[in-house]
From TrEMBL:
GO terms for biological process: thiamine biosynthetic process; thiazole biosynthetic process. The modification 2,3-didehydroalanine (Cys) is found at residue 205. Homooctamer. This is Thiamine thiazole synthase. InterPro entries: FAD/NAD-bd_sf, Sti35, Thi4_fam. Its EC number is 2.4.2.60. Substrate binds at residues 76, 97-98, 105, 170, 207, 222, 274, 284-286. Keywords: Cytoplasm, Iron, Metal-binding, NAD, Nucleus, Thiamine biosynthesis, Transferase.
Amino acid sequence: AVMPAPVEAHRFEHPSTFVQDAAPATKAGEKVDKWADFKFEHIRESTVSRAMTKRYFEDLDKYAESDVVIIGAGSCGLSAAYTLAKARPDLKIAIIEAGVAPGGGAWLGGQLFSAMIMRKPAQLFLEEIGVPYEEEDTYVVVKHAALFTSTLMSKVLTFPNVKLFNATTVEDLITRIDPATGKIRVAGVVTNWTLVSMHHDDQSCMDPNTINAPIIISTTGHDGPFGAFSVKRLLSMNAIEKLGGMRGLDMKLAEDAIVKGTREIVPGMVVGGMELSEVDGANRMGPTFGAMALSGVKAAEAVLEVYDE
Ligand code: AHZ
């Protein structure tokens, strides 16, 4: 696939690149209005509509059978997507994000502060994606959490084998009974536009859409209005026995536990990030993000094991 060429900043300094006709001749010393003849190319409104809808519906068609679905585009889901998409450009990876804006809880470092803290050795992931950091003793600092999230997101979205369906909620899981074990395996996701999902109470029968995939990575975050979706659903259908419930904050315990615990919790579903704390009864870590990045890497590795076999 052809990667788009980066836009060179200096191109914007020369309006002649944009303006069709040369700027009018002027007397010496007179200021030239370089934008006087500026004009965009012609377009018809229907062309814009078709350019968007054609691609979206082609993507819905293409990703109806995905190789991997990632639920949630927070720091963990995006780290998983990056690792997978880079390792296996042949896999079709669909990311389903309920929010209009992907990124989850990683636009700020903590409270409303900008700096993002990652404990070592998570700086290796920052190096991998090219995010600069300030080095401290046992940890590193990215000057703004949004720099991490936007850089990671731009890399993920540039991979030709990734499609982000944002403003789209996973409302349910597709499951199958494994004939060998009699147990449930996850075989895909049931989706709806988030704005539709929010109105099941006052509009009837707005049936969803589906995506089949042999393996899912769920990273929907800790419990809340949207969070911990997949594991709560697995509990309600008796595919797991209980939820441990996220425990109080302990940075030291929490980060190791989340990374180490990242795994396939039922066949066909890997759980990572803070969603996992609800399964395992792990602590929260609060404003340190190394575990989210490395849990994403480990979740991707669990999927790679399946595909590299
Ligand atoms: O919108 C959610 C968010 O962007 C999305 N999501 C949740 N349920 C979904 C569903 N369908 C589609 N049913 C859904 N998308 O999942 C994303 C989760 O991102 P996050 O940043 O909340 O989770 P994370 O595990 O990647 O990172 C958590 C970081 C921490 S730690 C912590 C603490 O210790 O208090 N708090 C946060 C936010």
